[in-house]
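User: Please predict the structure of the protein below. I'd like the answer in structure-token form so I can feed it into my own downstream comparison script.

Assistant: Understood. Taking the following sequence of 370 residues as input:
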Amino acid sequence: MDKHLFICPCMFGLESVLAGEIKRLGGEDVVTTDGKVSFSGNTDMIARANINLRTAERVLLVLGSFTATSFTELFDKTKALPWERYIGRDNNFPVKGYSLNSKLFSIPDCQKIIKKAVVSRLSEKYRISWFEETGPLMQIQFSIFKDTATLMIDTSGYALHKRGYRKTSNAAPIKETLAAGIIDFARVRSGGSIYDPFCGSGTFLIESALRATNTAPGLMRPFQAMRWNWIDRKVWYNAKDEARDKINPNPDLICYGSDIDPEAINLTMENARAAGVEKYIKAEVLDIKDFKPKTENGIIFANPPYGERLLDIRQAERIYKTMGKVFPKDGFSKYIVSASEDFEDFYGLKANKNRKLFNGSLRCRVYMYY
């Protein structure tokens, strides 16, 4: 099978987690840079990566990378790439992307030049002058950073953090990919007790259950590349069968969720049912001041309200102080997400370790106690 180069964007701070996932999946030549991981693999890796990766935002197929300091250079080098290997006569192939710290900084102009170059290449190869673009989507993406242009095709469709189980969410949810990364930090496996006293729409609980059961996060959703005619459908069937065979149906796990908002409890259980992990999750309405673990040990995940998001800063600080009082000191690891640089002062204990992350566009840290 042909070897391809891929790039998987991820949330800043999760690069090492994603690199580990890719290596375990069989990806080769893995290279980590800020906000993304590149690797090589066969065509079947398009299916396997989309279905199995927990912390990637997308799987992008790389056509080529080159220096471009003029529009002529951008056109000529884009046209030189083998677009006809992937884009058919009827495919829809729009262009989008970004440019940073480069001479070519106009996004609309870059889009037009790249589109024109691809059309020119395909017109010569297919001997046609007009493309209806009524077929399956082949979303072309470009990045131009410090005058280096990278041309890619998105294989995923909508972002991979959209697993398919969260139909609705409460305000300010944590991204599934970020939750999965923090769960990896905590080394959640097939047994034990998990707690989330601010469970919201249940993301930490559900992602923990998916991890403990070794259920691939992409089993319930489609991907754009499933519609591409140059990828045999068997590749997708085989990748899904392989993922299903690895599921552990009987983990020794229970996840306890609580939240002061009754609607959050309803959302948590609704989403857990959609994810197929309802039997591992229990949730109840509970104020953080009344939190008390039901077991002697376990892992506590918490994404308490930030002052910048839902409550004013003083209310958030009061919550941090309450957490410091009610969270057990022994027998439990704690992984707490906060945007406050003073979190440890209010919580009352310095973390064993903290790590800078982004929850969406919000800069935050995960404070780790173990």
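That's the full token string. The mean pLDDT is 95.
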